[in-house]
Amino acid sequence: METFAVAGLPEIRAGDDLAALVGERVDFEEGDVLCVASTVVSKAEGRKADLSAFPPSGRAEAIAARLESVTGDPKDPRFAQAVIEESKALLTEAPFLLAATRFGHITVNAGIDRSNVPGADLLLLPEDPSASAEHLSETLDVPVVVTDTSGRPFRYGQRGVAIGWASLPAARDWRGESDRDGRELGVTVQAVVDELAATANLVAGEGGGGTPAVVVRGWAFGDHAGSDDLFRREEDDVVREALEEWAFDG
Ligand code: GDP
Ligand code: MN
Ligand code: MN
Prior knowledge:
Layout: E1 2-5, H1 18-23, E2 33-37, H2 38-44, E3 48-49, H3 58-71, H4 77-85, E4 87-92, E5 98-101, E6 106-108, E7 122-123, H5 129-140, E8 144-151, E9 158-166, E10 171-173, E11 189-190, H6 192-204, E12 213-217, E13 225-227, H7 238-245
Parallel strand pairs: 2-8
Antiparallel strand pairs: 1-12, 2-12, 3-7, 4-5, 5-6, 8-9, 10-11, 10-13
The chain binds guanosine-5'-diphosphate and manganese (II) ion (MN) (2 copies).
């Protein structure tokens, strides 16, 4: 397997045809997967926003005041309002805002970015990243994963995760197959789109590299069952359930 960044993409603006910009720079081959940072999908879809577009509700004011006292850093209630508006639910309000987005991804601050956003305060995630992936995939005739950089529980540091995908299953189901001793695998469902996203993110980098699109070449899904389950259903998520009963008391 080989992984390389698409060179020479410009700063993406609202209305840009991202598929065309990528397509004119890559000769896709059978078996390629295109991984695209959500940042540029959002920019193309006009998801830049200013804080002034989010006049804070009383709830946002209260959340920001609490965060300010907990962290000791100034917090803008308009940012809290943006996170509320981009979320279906807030799983925690302190010591940080952990948000469930409408499309199922759970992440800090609803994935709203403040870096790599020239000319605006904020960049919101795409509204429906799998629909964005679908559009790119149909136009370019290649499987697509839309990625974001995200933290994770239990570990320091962030890594790439898939927030949308098209024309490949999200996961490779190893259940029913055997290990080297012939023991049947009972639980292993490999989240391949996350693994592809992490691979791509490693190449894309996080700063000013200007490489939001990455091609994975020579990787094969193989002869396995597939599944599109990635975002855990609420009734199936004991960590979420525990968080709902938990309150930060710092
Ligand atoms: P995120 O992980 O999707 O939130 O995106 P990042 O802000 O980490 O950016 C990922 C990669 O895309 C980095 O290499 C950035 O330099 C690059 N990038 C971000 N915006 C643009 C853009 O508009 N044009 C180009 N060419 N690169 C960009
Ligand atoms: Mn991001
Ligand atoms: Mn990133």
